[in-house]
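[job 4417] fold queue: 2 targets
>>> target A
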Amino acid sequence: MKFEIKNHWNNIILFEGEFGSLKLCIEAAVKKNANLQDAYLRGANLQDADLRGANLQRADLQRANLRGADLRGAGLRGANLQRANLRGAGLRGADLRGADLQRADLQRADLRGADLQRANLQDAKGIHPALITPLLILADQPGKIRAYKLVNEKWEGPHNGGLQYQIGTTFEVNDADTNADIQCAQGINVATLNWCLRLWVSRNQPIGWHIVIVEFTKTDIAAIPTATDGKFRLHRCTVVEEIPFPDLGLEKKNAS
């Protein structure tokens, strides 16, 4: 029987051939290092499939049966895995950054070394936050804790603005979102230093921006998102000082 694996955006054929099942077709595509980015595989039965090292970035695998599948080292960045059955799947070293795993079944899945940064894990089954969220260490710190926030030339957060994080100012957000399954939501969003610097660099190192240190206690933490890449939310904090970019060995670009 002839099977075609198509791009879910434009229906371009990514791989095709005569096989006994769609599972065998996909396994053959993976063995031949076919590029399956954006593949339409919604609802596919891939139970126990050998998909080691597969390139499935942004693939539509919604409701797919991947129970027991071997996805070690697979590229699943940005993939739609909503309601997918990944029970017992081998995901060791898989790239799941930004993947949508809402309501996916990950019970007994091997997630050792998997990268789940910015993944949507809302209502996912079988996820143990302590195994994939190093920043949970913050919840056990006594006394005052410090973190960082990148602000623009107006001393406002670069995404939503509104609050001005000037030195000595204390803030409180009563309705901060406490759901750790949501990566970015209402609250005072702060982060690790490297997270702030990555964002600054990605914005082409804008002149006039600042990195400030905020201080809080563990009771001020609203949510440490599961598998966060460094960002988390607070109910309240105080801005205590600024870290000049030159002190970090990073000079701002000169105005053109």
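>>> target B
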Amino acid sequence: MPDLEKTSKIEFIDLKAQQRLIRNSIDARISGVLSHGRYIMGPEIAELEEKLAAYTGEKYCISCGSGTDALLMALMAYGVGPGDAIFTTTFTFVATAEVVRLVGATPVFVDIDRCTFNIDTAKLSEAIEQLSVRHPGLKPKGIIPVDLFGQPADYDEIGAIAKAHNLFVLEDAAQSFGATYKGKRTGSLGDIAATSFFPAKPLGCYGDGGAVFCDDPSIAEKLRSIRVHGQGNDKYDNVRTGINGRLDTLQAAILLAKLEVLDDEVIRRDEVAGKYSALLTGKVVVPFVKDDRSSVWAQFSIMSESREKNIKALNAKGIPTAIYYPKPLHLQGAYKDLGYVKGDFPESEYVADRIFSLPMHPYLEDEQIRTITEAVSG
């Protein structure tokens, strides 16, 4: 990684440092779009989709307007609707469950493994088996595991559970693009996968963006139709209900420039995480990554019984922090009608009360890492 201009200010996510490194490539890519003027579905869209599909190992990549659109389009392609139950974690960003509601289905929440923050597969099996008791009248349809903070979920176990109950698996890889599971890259670990290119993601554009990945040609065809208002043979032939889900050509151009440095950044993120862990072990609970997978470290999240004290000390030194996520979804007002109460998912609630995230990006200097870790008291 080339030397970058050093700065004493610690950013939570330093997009400016990355931009200095690839500015010429970004400028050239944007200039190309301005020259041809195809701002909607320009040639950069097809180029990006081809490169992202090759990166993940999937046959098809369908880019779209956001990570939320990606999840929504995937559910629509599988025909999810009223009366269907979709099993997912309660400890995630709201979009994961929000899209289930948007298609008229019901999210059925599952607790997490406290060590990885990902969905607990034993509790997933239990939730599926108890569906008729907890949610009478619902039909089990699919599972949305979330690769939280950049680490893939337990896809072998999840896949076996899904097969036993005839469910599809939608991998929510919004935070994990670039990570691996048993030698396979995220985006290829379920029947279908969705990712986000929000600026803060490991691969992010300069606005909203997302993509869906699959190997099924019929699903890919549906996705391409759904993202353009359910289009059939032409613009005014609508064969299904769809959305306006296209990715802007300018964002595709920016992603193509950023894709050039993604592998180097993934390595550097892992190095930063290793240094954090070495300096913080024994003071707080540091992230645990299973041996058969890698994390892309979308966030570096730690747990402490003295969270507020630590956050106050870090902020006093000008060090930004964040809490992902302070309230699990089963306790959110939007899902009150599902009948969950405090205590239903104790692991998620335990983590939500203690977790907070430190600055994480590929351009953190060793001195900055030391400054951050020294401000954490335990």
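[job 4417] complete. Note on B: The two ends are 32 Å apart (CA to CA).
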